[in-house]
Design a protein that fits this description.
- With 162 residues, the protein is mainly α.
- The protein has one domain.
- It is built from six helices and no strands.
- Helix 1 packs across helix 5, helix 2 packs across helix 4 and helix 5 packs across helix 6.
- The longest helix is centred in the last third of the chain and has 25 residues.
- The radius of gyration is 19 Å and the shape is globular.
């Protein structure tokens, strides 16, 4: 139950952050991606802020012996770059540029009932379903599951944070 509440709180906080920063507005995202006209750097500033918070929070959190609501940390260890990763990233980028939404802001905007966001989320859901069906059919079996993350050993953080 604690895990579910933590996930719900995290999602709500993320959604509010997207709304407050204006990242649920497709025009804002398209303004960031349009380098030829009136470029809007505000998305880069929001990303930079998120990266800085993550940088410090990740170091602090993984210095603990375990997460608050799990037995161990699960951090993916795959580092290979393959065609599926590159193709998925390219499709993500094209969808982001055409729709002005990535999945998080699209979901937040759809909750507000925006028709463009609802169309985006429907397309996103349909695309995921089509890929799942294709992947199942091409592999001849169920789609491979995510590799089990390898637990990391906690770091002991000293007074300087290192």
């Amino acid at each position: 139950m604690k895990t579910l509440l933590a996930a719900a709180f995290s999602g709500l906080l993320f959604g509010v952050g997207l709304g407050v920063s204006g990242m649920t507005q497709a025009d804002k995202v398209i303004g960031f991606l349009d380098l030829t006209d009136a470029w809007d750097p505000s998305l880069a500033l929001v990303m930079l802020g998120a990266i800085l918070v993550h940088l410090f929070a990740f170091r602090k959190i993984t210095g603990r012996p375990s997460p608050l609501f799990a037995e161990r940390f699960g951090i993916p260890t795959r580092t290979d770059i393959d065609g599926r990763l590159v193709g998925g990233a390219a499709l993500f980028g094209v969808g982001w540029a055409l729709g002005g939404y990535c999945p998080g802001p699209g979901l937040v905007s759809s909750m507000a009932g925006g028709s463009n966001a609802l169309v985006f989320v429907a397309g996103l859901s349909g695309g995921m379903l089509l890929f799942h069906l294709y992947d199942e059919a091409s592999s001849g079996a169920a789609a491979p599951s995510e590799p089990t993350p390898t637990p990391i050993e906690p770091r002991h953080v000293g007074p300087t944070g290192r």
